[in-house]
Specification:
Blueprint lengths: L1 H27 L3 H23 L6 H27 L5 H18 L7 H24 L5 H27 L5 H6 L1 H37 L10 H12 L8 E8 L2 H8 L1 H18 L5 E6 L2 E7 L3 H16 L14 E8 L5 H17 L5 E3 L16
Parallel strand pairs: 4-5
Antiparallel strand pairs: 1-3, 1-4, 2-3
Helix pairs in contact: 1-2, 1-8, 2-3, 3-4, 3-5, 4-5, 5-6, 6-8, 10-11, 11-12
Length: 396
Amino acid sequence: MGGAISLLAVNFIIAQVFVVAFLVVAAKSQAKRPAIWCACGFAVASLSAVFETVLPFSLVPKLFAVGAFASVLAGFILIRFGLGFFYRVPANLPFATALFAGSVVLDLLIYDLPRGTLKHAFFYQMPFCLVQAWSASTIIRSERRSRADWILFCLLALSSIYYVVKVYAAIAAGSGTTAADYLASPFALVSQALGAMLIVATGMAILGVMVKEIIDEARASSELDPLSGLCNRRGFADRVAPLLQEGGDDGPGTLILTDLDRFKLVNDTCGHHAGDEVIRQFSCVLRELMPSRAVAGRLGGEEFAVFLPRIGPADARVLAHGMRAAIASTRIIGLPEVAAVTASFGVAVVAAEEPLELAMQRADKALYAAKAGGRNRVECAEAPVHVVANPRRARS
């Protein structure tokens, strides 16, 4: 019994470590709710160690045995709710309530059955198996397919299978006839050890996917321009880089550089608040008119870029004219009613294997020509005569 009790203590400590870890994740992540639910799940499940430790010394062992069963099952269900919030596959509350209540009632009914029988082992382990399988299905039903998500799915599926195996292991190895006998059996020692390993692995996997989410959020935030909501210069280059690899015989797409006309005059005469509103409205125009796979970014000040994958220069020119007309007709708060904001555009087709910075230089020359030609215009750059392959993409 001493070995099993020691493992129960270890499991309890491990659970508390995970509780703290999930609370830290909740404090650092924008999506606090999933981490808080998982922290509650581990906290509740850890109560089973307390119940099972007290059980051999209690005058009412049935109460503590059922309490241990109920706390683990409740903890697993709470973790399922946390995963549901994280993967945007919400758990069904009536189903969870019915599953928990029915399982506890069933455990009460089978309590007096010998623990070495198939009937007792099956009905005792199946609720845990079902909840773990339910949690694993959350990942399958979600749209997330990263390696970390697949690892978590495999561990949850393995945990579900583990409880099926425990049905036959309890009979083959012998788990005693009573709850107190179970703690003194060799099966309890092996079961607690394997259970601890799965708890640690699954807990680490859940933490892993949540920490990955925090890192992805931080990276996305560092690559976004807060005023326009578009990519900043680095984010634009990073998002365009993989699209440049997808090009066919005609190249990967077309680049548009655009610059707001006389933007400094807007700031000087109407104030920076009006200038900020111009930036926001122009960003909205770009987002509304560009295709779904296109990437838009604010390169700095009043200069913007749009990359159009798999779109030729003729269609890009038409799109640029649409953007030009849209911003010119947009009424912007903070500017006089008669004032119109205009923009100039430079369009350059990106050749196959052409580095992004070279295409941007050609588009910039076309943009300069549009400015020199009177502004509020669209000009197209000449196609590149020769491109030298360069695997290193600039992060400009």
